[in-house]
Amino acid sequence: MIRQATDKDIDTISQLCARCQSDEIDKRQMRRHIKHLLNQDLVSVSVAELCGLVAGVVVCQVIPQLGLSGHMGRISTIIVDEPFRDMTLGRQLLMAAEHALMAKGCDHIEVVPSYQKDDAQSFYIHCGFHLTPERLVKPLAA
Questions:
Q1: Where are the beta strands (DSSP E) in the chain?
Q2: pLDDT tens column, 77-106
């Protein structure tokens, strides 16, 4: 079942991120960040739940566009726990994100997959995404 995440999911989502992401994560900071995301109007956080366990999460946001008919949607995170990766949960989470973004006025969606994971890029291409030229990115001082 795919559903909107709630404050009750914060610890479970944080643990899932810690297990599945290669970067070291400060757990307190992660929990604060998830709580912040759950309270943003232009952000949607959904979880895949199986038998009471959170097996996956997707975070997407609306990027308002001036002068265009629709907004840009962006998937910033999609994670499926290792034991559940062959159960179509990634596709279900992606569809949930697409529906949430369309409901908020988005007419296209982007994702920047981890380039360390070839299977992630293949997954998105299989789901209808296509590669475009790289973006220019500049880190901002904290």
A1: 2-4, 43-50, 53-63, 71-80, 106-111
A2: 999 998 898 889 999 999 999 999 999 999
Are 96 and 78 a contacting pair, CB within 8 Å? no
**Could you give the angle at the alpha carbon of 97 between the alpha carbons of 30 and 5, nearest 5°?**
45
Please give the Cα distance from 48 to 67 (Å, whole number).
Answer: 35
Quick check: pTM over 0.85?
yes
Residue 27, SS3 per DSSP: helix
Q: Residue 100 and residue 104: Cα distance in Å, rounded?
A: 7
φ and ψ of 135, to 5 deg:
-85, 160
How far is Cα 80 from Cα 88, in angstroms, rounded to an integer?
10
User: From the centroid of its chain, how far is CA 39?
Assistant: 15
Place of tokens 């290669």: 22
Burial class (CB in 10 A: 0-12, 13-18, 19+), 7: exposed
Radius of gyration of the chain from Cα atoms? 15
**Structure tokens, 131:** 């590669």
